[in-house]
Backbone:
């Protein structure tokens, strides 16, 4: 089986930095995705990590440690439009399984 | 930018009726998926499809569900006899290769009454 854990909700201030953690237990791990989902909309791809380390893409970075079963998504210079759910998803064979998501609230 | 399109955007049906949800994946993509999301809950994997056959399916994807790629562009999900608990947003997704990001359609909101 597999288990993906991430905090249910987080709050941060506009302009600040926030780190959203994800831990997972799964056999046959093949990579980890982060997606953003605004309420009522489809998930949109943010990042993909297969190897250990940090992947940076503009204001967003994602880190993976395979040995620890741990990833985080780092969002810098937060904007109001970053208010959304952030979904950690683990790839195992031909299946990509999503965690419950972290709802991020941005305060002005 | 090419996108995954789903029709209809909203479908209301009575319990026990059959529904077909339609998807047109991105044209050069080879892997296709269906997910569902019950309101307020997580995105749940239903099935993956590659090379004209199901490659993986979840426990949710029982005999009431089937998928088809009837031609070179469409990918459909059929629910044979809908139940109230099938009410959810159904997302189609595609990817160009194994391990590549999934691109999601805007979803079909299915309401079973």
Residues:
């Amino acid at each position: 089986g597999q288990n993906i854990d991430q905090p249910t909700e987080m709050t941060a201030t506009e302009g600040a930095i926030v780190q959203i953690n994800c831990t997972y237990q799964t056999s046959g791990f093949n990579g980890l995705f982060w997606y953003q989902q605004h309420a009522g909309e489809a998930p949109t791809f943010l990042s993909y990590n297969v190897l250990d380390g940090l992947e940076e893409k503009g204001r967003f970075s994602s880190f993976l440690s395979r040995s620890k079963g741990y990833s985080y998504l780092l969002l810098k210079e937060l904007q109001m439009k970053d208010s959304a759910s952030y979904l950690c998803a683990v790839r195992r064979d031909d299946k990509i399984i999503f965690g419950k998501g972290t709802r991020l609230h941005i305060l002005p | 930018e090419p996108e995954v399109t789903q029709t209809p955007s909203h479908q209301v049906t009575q319990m026990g009726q059959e529904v077909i949800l339609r998807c047109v994946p991105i044209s050069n993509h080879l892997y296709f998926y269906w997910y569902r999301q019950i309101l307020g809950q997580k995105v749940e994997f239903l099935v993956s499809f590659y090379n004209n056959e199901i490659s993986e399916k979840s426990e949710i994807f029982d005999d009431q569900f089937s998928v088809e790629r009837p031609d070179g562009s469409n990918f459909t999900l059929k629910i044979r006899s809908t139940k109230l608990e099938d009410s959810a947003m159904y997302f189609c997704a595609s990817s160009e290769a194994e391990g590549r990001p999934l691109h999601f359609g805007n979803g079909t909101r299915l309401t079973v009454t």
User: Anything to note?
Assistant: Chain B touches chain A at residues 31, 33, 35, 41-45, 48, 50, 55-56, 58, 91, 98-99, 101-107 (CB under 8 Å). Residues 18 and 80 of chain B are 4 Å apart (CA to CA). The mean pLDDT of chain B is 95. The longest strand of chain B covers residues 43-50.
